[in-house]
Amino acid sequence: MPEKVITMAHGGGGSRMLELLEEVVFPALGGGTLLDAEDAAALSLPGLEAGGRIAYTTDSFVVRPLFFPGGDIGKLAVCGTVNDLSMRGARPLFLTLGLILEEGLAFKTLEKALVSVRRWAGEAVVSVVAGDTKVVEKGAADGMYMNTSGIGVIPPGRHVSIRGARPGDVLIVSGCVGDHEAAVLSRREAFDFRVEVESDCAPLNGLVEAMLEAAGGKGADTGRETPGGRAYSRDGEAAGLRSGRRENGRSSNKTEPPAEPSHDGACAVHALRDPTRGGLAASLKEMATASGVVFEVVEADVPVREEVRAFCEVLGLDPLLLANEGKLLAAVAEEAAPVVLAAMRAHPLGKNAAVIGRVLEGRAGEVSLLTPLGSNRLLRMPSGEHFPRIC
Amino acid sequence: MPEKVITMAHGGGGSRMLELLEEVVFPALGGGTLLDAEDAAALSLPGLEAGGRIAYTTDSFVVRPLFFPGGDIGKLAVCGTVNDLSMRGARPLFLTLGLILEEGLAFKTLEKALVSVRRWAGEAVVSVVAGDTKVVEKGAADGMYMNTSGIGVIPPGRHVSIRGARPGDVLIVSGCVGDHEAAVLSRREAFDFRVEVESDCAPLNGLVEAMLEAAGGKGADTGRETPGGRAYSRDGEAAGLRSGRRENGRSSNKTEPPAEPSHDGACAVHALRDPTRGGLAASLKEMATASGVVFEVVEADVPVREEVRAFCEVLGLDPLLLANEGKLLAAVAEEAAPVVLAAMRAHPLGKNAAVIGRVLEGRAGEVSLLTPLGSNRLLRMPSGEHFPRIC
Lengths: 391, 391
Prior knowledge:
2 copies of one chain form a homodimer. Chain A is α+β, with helices and mostly antiparallel strands. Chain A has 9 helices and 14 strands. Chain A has helices at residues 15-29, 73-86, 107-124, 179-185, 205-214, 235-241, 279-291, 306-315, 337-345; strands spanning 41-44, 53-61, 67-68, 71-72, 91-102, 127-136, 144-154, 170-173, 269-273, 294-298, 329-332, 354-360, 367-370, 376-378. The first copy, chain A, has a 7-stranded mixed beta sheet with strand order 9-11-8-12-10-13-14. Chain A is globular, with a radius of gyration of 22 Å. Chain A starts with 14 loop residues before the first helix and ends in a 13-residue tail after the last strand. Residues 218-264 of chain A have low confidence and may be disordered. At the A-B interface, helix 1, strand 1, strand 2, helix 2 and strand 5 of A face helix 1, strand 1, strand 2, helix 2 and strand 5 of B. Strand 1 of chain A pairs antiparallel with strand 2 of chain B.
């Protein structure tokens, strides 16, 4: 029997599409509100208190190849969106899934990717509640593209933001950098050099919860003390320094709160970012810029696997520029850093967590790298002319 | 000066991507939370009451050509998602936008599509709060694909669902069908026949609000009477009949309410669907199936523009199978139908609204079409082998 493949009719919104959904998509994803055949899922938001906030994000995935050591496009789609929500201190709840399929794609390839979506949604304890499927002609896509969007609830009093880093903070990275991009590149035909490393692709919401709990995640709003002590002593000072940060430039959208609270008594984890495209280098530059501060990073303290280091040396790459899919960069109040670091190391996804630098006053967005040779170089924002389609 | 085009580096997550965002995307979309450079937008949900529900949906858009009479991919992306939210009786609030761009795409083409996103988001009074941009090689996409997801708040007491149609209901369509697909197809190279019709692409949230208000949108929860009188007299009967509907099949997701309320005293607009891919035919079949009822439709009562009818006759197409992007199908309690129809006709997007049939007891999912010749034929679910990429 010939292998079943996607045809244009599977995108037509009729019985053929229904067949595809019932034969492959629903069984692989496991149903839930997807089976309701509604135009939109109707959902309550558990944990959302009156006046509370949600986090909302989206990502498309065009990774090549679709399957690679340690992951695949489906795992990436779930983790990427879960992680973006987690970087706001949100508890991820719901995902949507948009599929763009190329005519000729094997049913079993699609199924494998969707089974992975289901598995990792389960691991991250989120539900795929709505989806969409489009089909384009052979040659008008490259196998399969996925888009996910996600919603999470931000517990009251949590104000984690890329703009939150302030002088005195300690910079922590949750583990070895570069694994994801090294794993994906090593499976490209163009590379002879194979590296025995798996992608770090993983949902970070559990790790972030552990960090925020250790740091007194709900801050002064709940009247709780931060385990790390007086984590907020620098607030007054920081508030003045933050004037250098990028202006908010909000449009007339009246529905958002006017601005992030000024961290009075908020959580000791001030800022989070997951260093995906552009690697740790881009995340450092982005966070320092958005927060209006200077970062001083000790290059030798950034954890990098031996295999990845060797891979980079052979190919002339910088591990700081390689994408990660299961790592985070955090700016944490100095006083709380030991307890946050301990909580991270106690978590499977943070066992190689390390302090890599600190936050200083100065020219907004400057990232100074102390090299192993003892010199100091300014980190530049990568241009993006690295390798395409690693996520 | 050569025309600026998308290069692979624009997808790399570095300074080149930032240039693209700052030069084209942010100015065109107008900023808001997009400018915050956060991993996810943090949002409050105005109108969400304690225990209230949201509607959440997603859609990808691969329409060809990108620009057509009456619309373009950007307008389509906004309206498609706004409409899906509206079909649950939700008030749309926020959208996300995922872009997959092909290497070589002109900046100005992207800009034109994004300006359209902004314009129609403004018309629909929704905000684009998060976005993502990926670039794939020349030949790995067809110019540009867009994905939107959307969130809306469902006011308490509103339980509009495709499963809500019940015997005795009247079927109403909001205007002439087939305009969108006719407009798009007439711009394809393969078609010699031009039809002077514009796509009906439009955000339907205003029309739906008008309908629900006329029908006593909040139902018994607010203690209000339905203007149309005793719209709910058939509830007891309907509850029994609805046992034939598709089983809900929810997974172990505990976060959703266990089931839709049984419509005791709910709004007289029982079910809504926007007939996009698969046309009115697919929506009739889907709604009759999901609601476990029979539909009887008078073909001659379905409004079709003369130009579209002529286009269909020349090409041997059925207007009921053509996609719409600014129309809805509603199942409305008989007693409330006159007032709902009047409210629709008073709205610019519903001025050609018409009663096209009624809901009967019987074999779930059967749609009987009374033809102009007086015969009765059973409508079949279209297979989807119509024309690809019309949205």
